[in-house]
Design brief:
Order of helices and strands: HHHHEEHHHHEEEHHEHHEEHEEHEE
Strand content: 15-25%
Number of helices: 14
Bound molecules: adenosine-5'-diphosphate
Largest sheet: 5 strands, antiparallel
Radius of gyration: 53 Å
Shape: rod-shaped
Helix content: 55-70%
Distance between the termini: 77 Å
Number of strands: 12
């Protein structure tokens, strides 16, 4: 580039020297008076192609000297006054040209410098825009892109050159929306509508993907106050939108499932309640009539028949117990009462009273650390404590049952423990024992239907807590359950 410039300068200097020499020789050959020196102006004009103003001045001085030299060396001709006038005229022409060329070069210089500083300013502005984490787009009045930063190119997937000068709406907005946006943009440019500062829309990337951008717009006006472009900064919110949509959908699904669950739960409860309630009556009939049968016909019936009847009575009684258990299980939700501040030590006192007989009979010892007051359904809390203590006495080993209760505040919830020295539970059954009618022993070994822990689980869960057991076979069991401290859950 530089070489080319220097080349051109040398050519211009050579041309100037040749031209000056030519004019000088012509001047020497023609008699004085003829305005031979005037063509020197051409040499000055030639210096327009030389980069510096000083070249023009040097050329001006040289041709001025040649003009004066020509005055002395040319053959004499016209009158001296005309000759002198001619030479002065030439010098005047030469220096007018020098001034003109120098001025022209000066203004060219100023323009170039201004252009250069504008270019540098634009470059700096572009650099600032490029480090921004948001995309910037300048859309000119004619809808073409005048400027885009690096982030914008990144999101759109095009290089800057592929974007600049393109119609923003035709090239980067989905086809079905571009018409409407174009219309609004034109109205905005004409000042017919007020700008919307914040809005969201889709853009099309190079690989045909749609991305959602949240835009912040500002108008660019010229010195006369006329709108000439919009400068928009945009954040790609596609992922956020997707996450929001997924969350909304998940919430919707969850709500639907919760409603379905609630409905099926209440249907199930209704069914269990009605079934157990309505079954009781025919069952009572079966039990009482078989008993009647055995009493009234005891002289006629042989031993086998009596035994069969006792099996039937026993079966009917067991069924009645199961139905009653089912009924109380289903009532945990249906017959729920309000929660109250309840002192657990008082509850324990009631349990001790209720289980008095069994405690005495088994020589059981029930001890406790200080127990808190909790916000619960009082009747259900009594049922929970009683079931656990009853089990601890029932499933005691050989020695007298020892049961110890304690509670610890774990921040948001109370952790209760009921520890015994009984037969323990094989850890593989830790979950199973909380299921309805699941037992690990026969009725002959230990009486019961297997509803107790299922009821405990339901009560704890209704209060927003959890229940579990830790135990080793033959080494006693510890039942844990949590109850949220009031207002924490
Ligand atoms: P049930 O007491 O009527 O059998 P539960 O639901 O209360 O029914 O208990 C289920 C089973 O869990 C019991 O059959 C027993 O095998 C086991 N179990 C419950 N509590 C204890 C305990 N404290 N120690 C050992 N085993 C227990």
């Amino acid at each position: 580039m530089l070489d080319k410039k220097e080349d051109k300068s040398t050519q211009v200097i050579i041309a100037s020297i040749l031209l000056s020499a030519g004019i000088f020789i012509m001047d020497l050959m023609t008699p004085l008076g003829v305005a031979d020196a005037i063509p020197y102006i051409a040499v000055i004009l030639l210096s327009l192609w030389l980069p510096h103003r000083r070249h023009t001045y040097i050329a001006g001085i040289i041709v001025s000297l040649l003009t004066i030299l020509g005055f002395f060396l040319s053959p004499s001709g016209e009158r001296l006054s005309i000759v002198i006038a001619n030479r002065i005229l030439s010098l005047f022409g030469i220096w007018s040209a020098v001034i003109f060329v120098s001025k022209y070069k000066y203004s060219l210089d100023v323009i170039n410098r201004t252009k250069e500083s504008l270019r540098r300013e634009k470059e700096t502005a572009q650099k600032y825009l490029d480090v921004a984490a948001t995309m910037f787009v300048l859309t000119s009045r004619d809808q073409t892109v005048g400027l885009i930063n690096r982030k914008g190119c990144e999101i759109l997937g095009y290089s800057e050159d592929e974007i600049i000068g393109k119609n923003w709406f035709d090239s980067f907005i989905p086809k079905n929306q571009s018409g409407q946006f174009k219309k609004s943009f034109n109205e905005l440019m004409r000042g017919e509508i007020r700008p919307v500062e914040l809005f969201e829309n889709n853009i099309m990337t190079k690989n045909g993907e749609k991305r959602v951008i949240s835009w912040h717009n500002s108008l660019i006006r010229d010195d006369g106050g006329e709108i000439i472009a919009t400068l928009s900064s945009g954040i790609d919110i596609t992922e956020r939108k997707k996450a929001e949509d997924a969350l909304r959908q998940a919430n919707k699904d969850l709500k639907k499932y919760a409603e379905e669950l609630k409905r099926s739960n209440s249907e199930l409860e209704q069914f269990a309640y009605v079934a157990s309630h309505d079954l009781q009556e025919p069952l009572r009939m079966v039990a009482s009539f078989t008993q009647l049968l055995s009493r009234r016909y005891k002289d006629i019936l042989d031993d086998n028949a009596k035994e069969f009847i006792s099996f039937a009575v026993d079966g009917a009684n067991r069924m009645q117990r199961l139905i009653n258990d089912l009924l109380s299980y289903s009532r945990i939700q249906t017959k729920e009462r309000a929660f109250n501040e309840t002192d657990c030590e008082e509850i324990l006192g009631q349990v001790r009273a209720n289980l008095h007989e069994s405690i005495e009979k088994n020589g059981a010892m029930i001890t406790n650390d200080p127990l808190p007051a909790v916000f619960v359904d009082q009747t259900q809390m009594l049922q929970l404590f009683q079931n656990l203590i009853d089990n601890a006495i029932k499933f005691s080993g050989k020695g007298p049952p020892r049961v110890h209760l304690s509670a610890e505040n774990k921040g948001g919830e109370w952790l209760f423990t009921v520890r015994d020295n009984g037969i323990g539970i094989d850890p593989q059954f830790n979950k199973r024992i909380f299921m309805i009618f699941q037992r690990l022993h026969s009725r002959e070994e230990y009486p019961g239907t297997g509803i107790g822990l299922a009821i405990c689980k339901r009560i704890v869960e209704r209060h927003g807590g959890e229940i579990w057991v830790e135990s080793e076979h033959e080494k006693g069991s510890t039942f844990y359950f949590t109850i949220p401290v009031k207002g924490e859950k």
